[in-house]
Design brief:
single chain, 2 domains, alpha/beta, 297 residues
């Protein structure tokens, strides 16, 4: 089979919560299906800021508006998958972590239904990643396809390597965590007064976990880079992604420290935290993703 046949005989898809950009998805020919959010009685698609610009979204959150989010339903998955199956191609769908959302169940139901109708098939893989870490894994899967990986080979690679995608987050604004009930009012009051920045990670089960509490944002910026330095050699040249929610200056400070130490990293790509993930984290969150050895326990 020729190189182009590997690329053309299946299509890689994902959810909007890969949190990259609409331009990248179009450029890499990766269809995605959107989560939705409800804010102030209005429904928006999570579509990389097209329906709801990021600056307006985070300003609204900061001004007290509360957003609720909805995962993708079965029919939306079926609609996306059918478009590809009708072209005579298989589908490799990489889903948001089952430890973060139950949306993978809807994807599986849609796949099971369509696989009874079509000769071509839909394959679902749990990324066990979220947000930009999920997006990074999607990009690596696309790279594999373009290198000539068949669908089964790519699926196996994803299962073998998904837990090597390391996620670190810190937040300097606890307001959304308090509103959402993830931090009590008292703990939030104390944490804010002491300038506590929770350092979080994604576990081996694909769940968001608090790792430690760090006092002051400047120490959190150093700590998140130290986590990467402690795990990787200084000649690391693999992928490195970052995200920020209305705190680009903080993300740039982290990026500068990374590039200062890891001389062989060409660039650190910084993306906004998407509206669905951002509805839960609020502004003030910086995230870092890279390929490591294993996730923290």
């Amino acid at each position: 089979m020729l190189y182009n046949d590997f690329v053309k005989n299946y299509v890689l898809t994902c959810c909007s919560t890969a949190d990259l950009s609409d331009e990248i998805m179009k450029e890499r020919h990766i269809p995605y299906v959107s989560f939705t959010l409800n804010i102030d009685g209005k429904i928006y698609n999570d579509d990389y800021g097209r329906s709801y610009p990021y600056d307006k979204f985070y300003a609204d959150i900061k001004n007290g508006m509360q957003a609720t989010t909805s995962q993708v339903n079965v029919e939306a998955y079926k609609e996306m998958f059918k478009t590809i199956l009708d072209q005579g191609k298989d589908v490799l769908h990489l889903s948001l972590s089952s430890g973060i959302s139950g949306t993978i169940n809807s994807a599986r139901i849609a796949a099971e239904s369509l696989n009874e109708e079509y000769e071509n098939k839909v394959y679902i893989v749990d990324s066990l990643c979220c947000s930009g870490g999920y997006g990074m894994l999607v990009m690596l899967a696309k790279d594999n396809q373009e290198k000539g990986f068949g669908i089964e080979e790519n699926i196996q690679w994803l299962k073998d390597n998904r837990l090597k995608v390391i996620h670190w987050f810190f937040s300097s604004d606890l307001t959304s965590y308090i509103r959402g009930g993830r931090i009590s009012n008292f703990a939030g009051f104390v944490g804010t007064a002491l300038k506590i920045c929770p350092l979080m990670c994604v576990s081996k089960e694909g769940k968001l976990e608090q790792y430690e509490k760090i006092r002051t944002k400047s120490k959190a910026i150093q700590a998140i880079v130290d986590k990467m330095k402690n795990e990787l050699d200084d000649d690391y040249s693999g992928p490195c992604y970052m995200q920020q929610s209305a705190c680009l200056e903080d993300a740039l400070a982290v990026k500068a420290l990374i590039l200062e130490y890891f001389k062989k990293i060409d660039d650190v790509k910084i993306f906004p935290v998407g509206t669905v993930i951002g509805a839960h984290t609020g502004p003030g969150t910086v995230a870092l993703y890279y390929l490591g050895k294993e996730r923290a326990k």
